Amino acid sequence: MSTKKIDFETMSFDDLWSLHEQISQILAVRITSEKRELERRLAVLNRSRGAIEGATNEGAQSYGSSGKARRKYPRVLPKYRNPQTSETWSGRGKQPRWLVAAIKTGHRIEEFAINGASAPKGRRQRA
């Protein structure tokens, strides 16, 4: 790099624009190469992190935002059905609008139970 000073104030518009284009091209190339290098380093870190987590989580499949493995939840079968639209609800979480509206009009939740689904399922006791 040279140490001579450039007086931008005395340069013509065309010279300044040419200098601007040269600097833009050089910056684009350097930014691209820096980005590639950072992506390469990140890939190496992710590979080593995956090997460490794989050993500690015993091959867990999915990860949350914290990086910890999520536990697998059993599939929940529906317990209630809307007879008009066949929409279903498992009984977990917020009650669906159709059920809330039906209860407000005087219906009972048991009226919408799917046969066999309303029976409480507890742990089996040993005989």
TrEMBL record:
Give the transmembrane ranges: none
Q: Where is the DNA-binding protein H-NS-like C-terminal domain?
A: 67-114
Asked if Oxidoreductase is a keyword of the record, the answer is no
Q: Which residues form the signal peptide?
A: none
Entry's Gene Ontology molecular function annotations: bent DNA binding; DNA-binding transcription repressor activity; minor groove of adenine-thymine-rich DNA binding; transcription cis-regulatory region binding
Is Lipid biosynthesis there in the keyword field?
no
* CC per GO annotation: cytosol; nucleoid; protein-DNA complex
**Where's it found, cell-wise?**
Cytoplasm, Nucleoid
Q: Give the record's keywords alphabetically.
A: Cytoplasm, DNA-binding
Specify where it is mainly localized.
cytoplasm
Q: Where is this region: Disordered?
A: 56-93
Name the family the entry cites.
Answer: Belongs to the histone-like protein H-NS family.
Q: What is this protein called?
A: Putative histone-like nucleoid-structuring protein H-NS family
